[in-house]
Amino acid sequence: MSSNQEFANAAPGAEGYRKDHPAAAHCQIIDADKGEIDLMGRKKIAICGFASSTRHYFPVDNPEWIVVGLNQIYRHSPRFDVHFDIHSYWEEDNVDGTDHPKWIRECGIPVFMAERYAESPTSVRYPIERLIAKYGLDYFTSTVSFELAWAIDYIEQQVTKRLEGESVTPATMRALFSEYTIGIYGIDLIVGTEYEVQKACVEFYVGMATALGITMHIPPECALLKQMYRYGYQREADTGLMKLSELSDRHAEIERTKQVLFKKMHEHNGALGLLKDLKTKLNGDSGPILDAQIGVLMPELEKTVAELQTYDGAQQESAHMRAVLELRLRGGKIPLCQGKT
Predict the structure, then answer these.
(1) What is the mean pLDDT of residues 246-256?
(2) Strand ranges (DSSP E) for the chain?
(3) Strands, DSSP E only, in 114-161?
(4) How confident is the model at residue 3 (pLDDT cuts 50, 70, 90)?
(5) Are 182 and 209 in contact (CB under 8 A)?
(6) Pick the residue with more confidence: 36 or 168?
(7) Which of 10, 11, 213, 223 could join 188 via S-S bond, C-beta 3.0 to 4.6 A?
(8) pTM (two decimals)
(9) pLDDT (tens digit, 9 = 90+) per residue, 101-127?
(10) 181-185 and 44-48 strand pairing
(11) Buried-state track 303-321, b at ≥16 Cβ within 10 A, e below 16
(12) Strand-strand pairing, 44-48 and 215-217
């Protein structure tokens, strides 16, 4: 971390944002209220997130790329050219010990926000109304979708300018669009609301970009655009481990066995309780007989409890495996256990 940075701007073990990065684009703001900026002739836009699966692909040292960040990702990487924080509550829920508003004020790069931050000279209002009108729908479920919609719009504007006064054919249009690239790195969207709400919207905009002919670079490790299985050709997904139906059958069999063992354990406990009560009431009479019966039941109870613990462990393993398989089906490259595939 260079000497002119505060530690709060870098994550532990990471090199934080540097204003003086040699590959920086130094983008210019044309109209902050209209959301217009200049990417300085660069034709490749990298949308960067936090997911470790593909975060190593950030093209931070490549001067052909515009590197786009979000939220507080500047703590993890040394270069960003454009930043997004599209949250009305952007001053809340930030990493303890950091000063996010200060970073936005002083970062020196365009920062797209829901509304301009008066104290930041480089805050830019996201052109939400214009993009809703342009795309014909209000569909933005994550910061990544805002970034993609903006990147597509920017590329379309550049292609339109280049075509002014030219005869246009579909082949010409597609050829021009193919000169521009959008890369998606550090974005998986496979858990919680990211999967349930955000992923479909991001893939929608990826589809829009692809339809225009924009070159999309999505690493194979990324979970986006992954199908569980090809409908009609397969009945069930191949997870590389076992089928979910097989895992469900196994889980159900374990549960049935546990219920039998639970019943057996309660019967042993009940019988032992009765024997001990009887021994107490008899004041020692028939003690050897009762002790012998108790001596038979105790090992049986201990054996049953041990079996229950074994099956409980198997059930936990089954639940863990199911969670891993479901994330794999969503496109994630998730190991079965640490250090293994």
Answers:
(1) 82
(2) 28-31, 36-38, 44-48, 65-70, 82-85, 111-113, 123-125, 181-185, 215-217
(3) 123-125
(4) very low
(5) yes
(6) 36
(7) 223
(8) 0.75
(9) 999 999 999 999 999 999 999 999 999
(10) parallel
(11) ebeebbeebeebbeebeeb
(12) unpaired
Specify whether the CB–CB gap between 70 and 113 falls below 8 A: no
Percent of the chain with pLDDT over 90: 54
Structural domain spans, the chain? 7-217, 244-329
Quick: pLDDT tens for 265-316. 898 888 888 888 887 887 766 668 888 888 888 888 899 888 888 888 888 8
C-alpha 314/C-alpha 305 separation (Å) is: 14
Residue 68 in contact with residue 84, Cβ under 8 Å?
yes
**In terms of DSSP H, where are the helices of 25-142?**
100-106, 128-135
Residues 6+ apart with CB under 8 A from 202: 141, 142, 144, 145, 148, 187, 189, 224
**Phi, psi of 84, rounded to the nearest 5 degrees:** -125, 130
* Window from 152-161, 203-212, 239-248 with minimum mean pLDDT: 239-248
SS3 167: coil
What architecture does CATH give domain 244-329? Orthogonal Bundle (1.10)
CB 15 within 8 A of CB 3: no
Higher per-residue pLDDT: 161 or 335: 161
CA 73, CA 143: separation in Å to the nearest integer? 12
Query: What phi, psi does 39 have (nearest 5°)?
Result: -90, 15
